Amino acid sequence: MLFGDNTLCALCMLILSITHIDLSLSLGLARVELEPKLNTDVYYSYDGMLDYLDQLANDYSQRVVLHTVGKTYENRTLKTITITNGDGRTGKPVIFVVAGAHAREWLTPVAALYAVEQLVVGLEEHRHLLRDYDWIVMPLVNPDGYTYSRTVDKWWRSTRSPNGGNCFGTNINRNYDIGWRTGYAAQSDPCQEHYAGSEPFSEPETRAVRDIMQELVDTGRALMYISLHSHHTTVFYPWTYKSVPTDNAIKLREVAKSGAEAMHKATGTMFSYEQASLNDPFGGTSLDYAYSIGFPLSYALELSGQRNGNTFDFWPPTTLLKELAHESWVGISAMAEKAIEYYPTLSAETESATSQTRSSSTYSLTNIFKILLLLTAITILSQ
Ligand SMILES: [Zn+2]
Question: Which of 18, 79, 103, 219 is deepest in the core (most CB within 10 A)?
Answer without folding.
Answer: 103
